[in-house]
Amino acid sequence: MNKPRKIVAYLRVSTAKQGHSGLGLEAQQAAITGYAQAVGVPVEKTFTEVESGKLNERPELEKALHLAKVTGATLVIAKLDRLSRNARFLLTLMESGVNFIAADMPGANNFTVSIMALVAQQEREAISKRTKEALAAAKVRGTKLGNPNGASALRRAAKGNTASLGAIRGKADSHAKDLEPILAALKAEGVTSLGKIAEALTARGMKTPRGGSWHKSSVKNLLKRIDASSLSEGTRAD
Question: Would you kindly state where each structural domain of the chain is located, as residue ranges?
Answer without folding.
Answer: 7-113, 171-237
